Amino acid sequence: MRWSPWIARLACACILIGGFEPFYFRMLTPERARFGAWATQLPYSKTLGLRAFMLGVRERTKSGDKIAIVTPYTKWNGGYAYAFTRSTYVLAGRTTIPIVGDDDTPLSADGAEYFACWHIEPPPGTVVVWRDNHGILARTQR
Amino acid sequence: MIACLILVIVGFPLSRAVDRSAPLLRAIALGFLLATGLMTIVMLIVPWNPGFIIIAMALLSALSCFAKLQFPHRERLSPIALITLLMLIGYARYATSAPAWEVDFVADWGLKARVFFEHGGIDWSFLTNHWYRWSRQEYPPLVPFVYDFGSLLAGGWDDRGPSVFYAFVVGASLIIVQSLLTDEFESPHVAALATLAIAPLVATPWIGIGDTAFLAFAFGALVLIRRGGDSSLAGALLLGIAALTKNEGYALIIATVIAVAITRGWRTAARLWPAIAVALPWIALRASHHVMNELAAGDVAARFAQNARQWTEIIRLIGAHTTGKPLLWLGVVLSIACAARRWIERERLLLLIVALQMLAYVAAYLITPFGLEWHIRWSWDRIIWHIQLPVVFVAIVTAVPLALTRRPASAEPTP
Predict the structure, then answer these.
(1) Mean pLDDT of B327-331
(2) How far apart are CA B111 and CA A86, in angstroms?
(3) How far apart are the C-alpha atoms of B7 and B38, rounded to whole Å?
(4) Alpha-carbon distance A133 to nearest alpha carbon in chain B (angstroms)
(5) What is the ipTM of this complex?
(6) Considering only CA atoms, which of B397, B361, B357 is closest in space to residue B257?
């Protein structure tokens, strides 16, 4: 019983020190700018140029357009989901169409008006609308 | 920032009507949290025009002025609270240092926010399109709506500025805790020190997703319900708002009602009905559009039977993905060592809620359709944060009174 107050003080000290998070205090310094630059590219870091390409696609399409997302990846969990989810975020407002199912089955993109082809050639029967160093935006022939 | 300030102003009359005993800062903080829930419900109903939303919120808030409102008294503050404030400013700068960068923001919370923003309201065609089922279509809408409300006021999609909400919601929760601890410890300095210890556990690193907001609402709710009396209604409302933030909130409502019934009786538990009333609109709306929770979809019994047979694997995976702060947990163990009786006698309510919530999480693993490895790997580290906050709170409130005990004066009269 005599020791209880001291153990309680030690418990409080452990909680205070053990939970302390110095990182947030460092955000008050110029380190924030470096962190911000790193965090900005983080969600797209495994797909070189995808964000810039999809931003270009967004500029050249309008809300409601149906855009198939074409990438070299053929497995859902082998890269396609990564590219498709991020493309869908950048192209929000348009309807993005997957060409790979979550069970890895190839899907047709019959309803697509556009093909956003990242690091891959567009399918036959389409015309190129715009390209950058990382991809090609193609449109189905009318 | 402007969106958050509007919520502060709109919420103040609400908090005065809901918890009349709250001093000034606690009333402001509670008001902000309540107004965020009000904003979510309003955005489920009215057309998405910033003027309509603000007017609807202001009108509903003004209704609370029919209650006889008095201006609250000011609480005592300690200079130690400035350290927590500095941390919160750092946290706000962290949250807004870049467009929200979490994978789950881009693939889920933020994606839905952006789709809704482009659509000018909830886009049910998106939420019912099986192409996008990886975006957790059934998740509650509060966090996406926060980004939408901020973007509506800004006049264009913004995935960076509205993240300042995270500093506001964490700050509001901490103000409530500090205020209640000031009453409990009868010392603003000790309360401020305890709040400083708790602050990093509420301010999670996950910006743009539901966990931080859920923790802030849920923790605020639990400490108010623990206090009881005048604060129970406010606690119940925050509990409902927690359910508008993450599905775990629905489990928390059930856990809290059961725990309150066991420790304080069914009549007290029945007074938590506002939590269900607040949580219900989203469930009803979701069900009317046939957007179902994936955990409840398909053959749940078969998945339960299959996963239950792998209970050793579940334990192994939980062990493998458990991370945390060892020194913090040593403090918890020491608190139990010196104040075990207080843990059981005084804090049964919170401990029971934590235990029931843990059971709910394990039950979710047992019926998961996502595969045990994947589900545990991507959820357990965040679930630890859900549990550690109330446990550390209990450790502090049981250890502090003992730590403040001084050597009793000698019974022998001094010559």
Answers:
(1) 94
(2) 9
(3) 9
(4) 24
(5) 0.91
(6) B357
